[in-house]
Description:
The structure is a homotetramer of 459-residue chains.
Chain A: H1 5-16, H2 29-32, E1 40-45, E2 50-54, E3 60-61, H3 66-78, H4 80-84, H5 114-123, H6 131-146, H7 154-162, H8 165-176, H9 184-195, E4 198-199, H10 201-212, H11 227-240, H12 246-252, E5 257-259, E6 264-269, E7 273-278, H13 289-302, E8 316-325, E9 333-345, H14 347-361, E10 377-381, E11 385-388, H15 390-405, E12 409-413, E13 431-433, H16 436-444, E14 449-455
Parallel strand pairs in A: 9-10, 9-11, 10-12, 12-13
Antiparallel strand pairs in A: 1-2, 1-7, 3-4, 5-6, 6-7, 8-9, 8-14
Amino acid sequence: MRSPVPDYLVDVLDAVRSIDDGAPADYIEVLAKADTSRLAVALATVDGEVYAAGDSDVAFSIQSISKPFAYAAAIEDVGLDAVLARIGVEPSGNAFNELSLEDGTHRPMNPMINAGALATHALVAGPDASGPQRVERLRTLMSAMAGRELGYDEAVYEAELRDAHRNRGLAHMLRAGGIITAEAETIVDGYVRQCSVDVTVRDLALMAATLANGGVQPLTGRQVIHRDGVRQVLSVMTTCGMYDAAGDWVSNVGIPAKSGVAGGIIGALPGQLGLAVFSPKLDAHGNSARGVAVCERLSRDMGLHMMDVSQIGRAVVRKLVVTLAGGKGRTGDAIVPVYELRGAVLFGGAELLTRTLAHDLGDANDAGAGHHREATAVILSQLHTHSLNDVATRMLLENLRRLHADRRTVVLVDPDGVLDLTSLDPARRPRVVATDAEAQAVVGGDACRIVASQEDTGR
Amino acid sequence: MRSPVPDYLVDVLDAVRSIDDGAPADYIEVLAKADTSRLAVALATVDGEVYAAGDSDVAFSIQSISKPFAYAAAIEDVGLDAVLARIGVEPSGNAFNELSLEDGTHRPMNPMINAGALATHALVAGPDASGPQRVERLRTLMSAMAGRELGYDEAVYEAELRDAHRNRGLAHMLRAGGIITAEAETIVDGYVRQCSVDVTVRDLALMAATLANGGVQPLTGRQVIHRDGVRQVLSVMTTCGMYDAAGDWVSNVGIPAKSGVAGGIIGALPGQLGLAVFSPKLDAHGNSARGVAVCERLSRDMGLHMMDVSQIGRAVVRKLVVTLAGGKGRTGDAIVPVYELRGAVLFGGAELLTRTLAHDLGDANDAGAGHHREATAVILSQLHTHSLNDVATRMLLENLRRLHADRRTVVLVDPDGVLDLTSLDPARRPRVVATDAEAQAVVGGDACRIVASQEDTGR
Amino acid sequence: MRSPVPDYLVDVLDAVRSIDDGAPADYIEVLAKADTSRLAVALATVDGEVYAAGDSDVAFSIQSISKPFAYAAAIEDVGLDAVLARIGVEPSGNAFNELSLEDGTHRPMNPMINAGALATHALVAGPDASGPQRVERLRTLMSAMAGRELGYDEAVYEAELRDAHRNRGLAHMLRAGGIITAEAETIVDGYVRQCSVDVTVRDLALMAATLANGGVQPLTGRQVIHRDGVRQVLSVMTTCGMYDAAGDWVSNVGIPAKSGVAGGIIGALPGQLGLAVFSPKLDAHGNSARGVAVCERLSRDMGLHMMDVSQIGRAVVRKLVVTLAGGKGRTGDAIVPVYELRGAVLFGGAELLTRTLAHDLGDANDAGAGHHREATAVILSQLHTHSLNDVATRMLLENLRRLHADRRTVVLVDPDGVLDLTSLDPARRPRVVATDAEAQAVVGGDACRIVASQEDTGR
Amino acid sequence: MRSPVPDYLVDVLDAVRSIDDGAPADYIEVLAKADTSRLAVALATVDGEVYAAGDSDVAFSIQSISKPFAYAAAIEDVGLDAVLARIGVEPSGNAFNELSLEDGTHRPMNPMINAGALATHALVAGPDASGPQRVERLRTLMSAMAGRELGYDEAVYEAELRDAHRNRGLAHMLRAGGIITAEAETIVDGYVRQCSVDVTVRDLALMAATLANGGVQPLTGRQVIHRDGVRQVLSVMTTCGMYDAAGDWVSNVGIPAKSGVAGGIIGALPGQLGLAVFSPKLDAHGNSARGVAVCERLSRDMGLHMMDVSQIGRAVVRKLVVTLAGGKGRTGDAIVPVYELRGAVLFGGAELLTRTLAHDLGDANDAGAGHHREATAVILSQLHTHSLNDVATRMLLENLRRLHADRRTVVLVDPDGVLDLTSLDPARRPRVVATDAEAQAVVGGDACRIVASQEDTGR
């Protein structure tokens, strides 16, 4: 059986090929004479599968799509507070090349407009960095996200530098407002370099997938950017990524995104996938005309809208009741409730487990409730738990404390140590084992035997 | 064991009680003299569990928190296109009571500012509705979401109507611009009624949870609002819900939200939960000062930020290999791969299953690949599949087509009919059964027996 | 000989008749169906001569041209400070019907936009006035300026009142901001009445000439509006009269002006004339297309631009030297310098006389200078002095004090008492006479005889 | 007798000395450490008298006060149309250093904000000028206006150039928008030079008086700037000179003005005078705090508000009736009406003469009217006519044509040729003489004698 995904992507490209609106950027000749027949799409899952169609190996300059990655670098290099002190996070309602400074602070409204991107570039690699250090830091970071060494489109770099009057204007303004302290000319040069990095949609899809995957590159597994920085970058892409039509994009497409003047667009859907499109003709907003159409179609066809409720699967709690014929040192059968926590567990999953435990075991002070209130031992299985976020961890530990207070024995099946017990008083820590069989042995005694095992539907 | 969640909520309230900034709204006396010591929080999961702390049974007027619900009603009653023709979706960057019309169209910028909310109210219950019909439609809808009959705070209604100069101004302006056609005075009266609905944080949490649950009221299970409308409402809450600080709220809290002048705030995290807070003192933006603090703390403590990657658990594909000792009419053992799709499945889950099938079974034209390439039958289990979205359904059907083309037998365990097969050519439809045992019998013959069953880790 | 002015005006109308751009206002039918062939111009000098051409006796509704007159009335009735507390004076850069309130104060930007005009109307006739009293106050004032009883165009009044949604919106907003306290509906009704006053270009030209003449109606000589109020009105017409193109109008036409939606425009050139045009088709700015062309042509042809330096004639000082053969009780000839101050004297004229006196008579402490330093008597003639402004009066009195200190006799020829001597110490007051002959008699004795009289060109 | 004007100016300075608000500009040290006790005022009449008080010989950098002069130079050097194509004339409502470009055209809003001033500088001396040529052109022009060679404050120049980040930003932006084509750096350098010209209040008062005098330097009599350019400059100073408070300044002070950051302010009252003030402490708008107070006081005390009706004296028509006892070749007395036109004559004066002639002489077709209808000869005296503007000239010529058509003899007393007769058909030209006596001789014959001469009050 062959996967239908590649075929689907080919179909999507064919469907948008009839769109012939717009024109390539014409402010420099090297972009103006782009081959407007080029069309490509790529999609990378957070576990590293990449699907692509069309001219997916054709390289083009990354342009403004570099902005979120530079923003991520700046947050990494000087800290979020220092970044927020110089660049805001509000949509400007203006075009990308407007100054759009906040009253009072002189901060550019956000890092996705050029003024904010210049201010962001100036923070990369820290306060003492030289121009070349900033540039190399960004190339290296973007390469780590793409999973290969990226280079530059020199023709684009040279043409843009020659004609960068507006960015020079913005940079001098930022210097006047105290937002940048380096030489304006150096910042503009570095920013133009940053924008001239050469990429394919494959690269971009993996870079977007790195954001979607909490900063971990899907193929290399390397934590390229800290998770908190990623959240900030995705937030800003949501409200400011598509220039002056934030609300429209969020309503229609619902994927944090960023476009570039060479015709690229990326989208990063948290926890799911990164996508990238390329087609040089731009619409009136400066976004790739066919690219937008591809994004709208992918979002609709594939249900990628982030407000789509079905996006979010709750972690699953599976309840079993195991009856153990007593093993060594035990007499009689033991009826043991087993709670399996499956998937990526966050508040919802932890809450569901907590609620189930409270329901099944009852309150120690309330003799009547809870169909397992007689159980003296409980098995908690993390075998199929992918991950626990902070709140889930805290809730599980609190559950362990309360079960201990109720004088129940807990055995934790957690071969990978998903649940970090270090903050729990050692005296209250449960026994941790690697397999179900071990857990059963702890409760039922060595060589105990499963007499019955069935899903517990009791409530 | 008692759940720690209520204790946590009490702690959160205690932590913010020291915040004494701000003042209650003072434009009408009935709000100005509110008991500023009131403080409450409630949290409702999408499966209907409600946790609450503080003054969770104290009622207050819903005020602007009614806006997203009225927007949902308008979309339901006249259709999204008709709504978008009259009201935009862009953040205005202005205060809630600014006119903020778009050039050219005269559309209010979005439905969360007063001008847009008045225009929204005018669409409720359709073009021929009377004032009382619009009002009753909204009360009924909000009651259905809260799960109880809601009433009005008459004192608030009368005081606000007396002093509604600004809203009268806005309504006449909208009439002048052709956005509304009803009498301005009638619209203002109805809007003031809508804002005077009396609610508690419990009510609001359930109303928010209804949004978070795709329009299905968690307790009654009724589809109160169509899923597409919910997506639109949540999108607009994301970019416009907290007035002039959209970017800041998305970055810091990351939950689609709406606040009201009486001191309430709701948040709706898609697929997870609804929350509500109440405290009458407002900050400079007009949002409840303690309420904002509670939201920030809940988001941080509970990992509720929608850009937090860990939010989204991928659907799980569980692979087993079952060896069946032949039953009636069979000889020899059959080694049958079993694919269980668990959780809410959307593109990511379907893609993972697809990829797994392609990997295990190999391409029909490629003799070498696939460790199960010899398998003539495959069991596909939807037993633990909560739901399939459109794209997942389409992908699964496509998988069935391709497996059929490869001449493999597929047995589908799907007691609840989660996978809709109607669009599949009857000749290609798999056999559908209700239990694993039935599936095994289909493949291995009646009375076949499981000789071995183990997780398949082959790749 | 017949005056060429009427012929010139006819020529101007003929020249603009080919302009066929624009369309009459179409928001109410009674304006939409205006006879667009109507074309008229009138010009009234500050001494009451009225020239007119075209349909100068056709009446039309005054509309926004009433705004400066209502502003004048408000200043008169509640004082400038109270007016400025509620309405600003800055150009808004927006269309006439924008809200354009100042941040913080909620003041409409200026009284020439609708919001400001509504706020102005509310101040007319003082805080306790009723709606009908405000309306009648304005009709009476405008009638006094036009020099005849003005009435209303009832069809326009009724149609506009029916459709005044936007003005209702503005009025409610102003009430919300505390700028007006009366019922919004009453203010809108009164304002619509104010705008429906029926006028001809003759009326408007005389009303404008009243402004140009410092508030004195040219024909009746009645001081209809206080001079300070007039200055304020003309200042605001200069910067805000032609809506969103203040700078353009000041540069091109250079006459304080105001236009109305029925096709009228007035211009008031301080000290010189009032003009009015009428043609119903409006340009994109909402100003009469032919009317603007007439104004530009009149300004250019007639040199009416207020920054045209040649506008301002300096008051003339005429110096004579009269040799008197001694009359009764005198022996020998007396050579007496005579200083005639001609025209409307303000700082420039007074300064010129002062400088001349200082030059001719020399400093008492400086024996050498001044070719009339021997003169013991000086005749100062105000016979041809039209008026003295405050500074000129103060300077002349100071001259009299200094001449007295220098022990020179001054005789003042001032039959009309143009120079007010009351603030001068009686001991230092000069002898005041009615004719040159009397003055000569005072200096040369009764029955003295002029032996020679010649212009004094000495310097 | 000594003139009281200098004493008055000293009093004004004493009165404002108590104002201690504000602070000197602090963006460069050389301005920040200015001697804030400095205070000076100067006043120059359009005929060249200069009054001064305080530190009137202390030099300071001209700064933004150079803007109107550079604007005048640009208009002179490339023409008004070319200037308007690049720089608008509308008040921006923003601070001086805002970009404030018009949508679409990218034109700076006006030449008084920095962006417009940079664009203006770039036009000086024409399209092919070098940086030094532009700078020298401006220094030379300003020197010609001041009446002495002006130099530079090198310390200010160097400090400002070092810190001109914002102006660099603006210049690069203007280059990006195609408004300037020269190197941004060169324009900024030249503009900083232009702003560093060293002046005293005496210089500035004469420079302003040159504008007030239609471009003619009062002392040298040289036409430094063309009259049309002056009108444009004064118009723009009126609406844009005092930054974001155009309406307020026009209402309160009513004098076209410009301020500079070193503490200077100039005002130019058309036809009357130029004034200049200096005091380094600036108010919140960036204008000299004491300087503004001096301007308000001068305007109020001296009646300088340009909307003050009394500003404008009408030209005077003096009518005499001379009875001549016949001279050589004549018999009997001749009663001859004499019309003297006095002062600067423009439309108003010409209209008054026209009206008088039409009244006195009557219509040729209307036998009854006109008390001088029998007069066969008329004397028109221009002896005291300072000047005639275009419209006055055209009207007088038309009067001559009509008098000729009525078969009356006209004798023109016009020794200086104030009335240009070249456009009049030679056959219709009146006899032109130099003195009243000659005129009488023409009418009454040589050796005729004046029997009676009296003012004609007939009407």
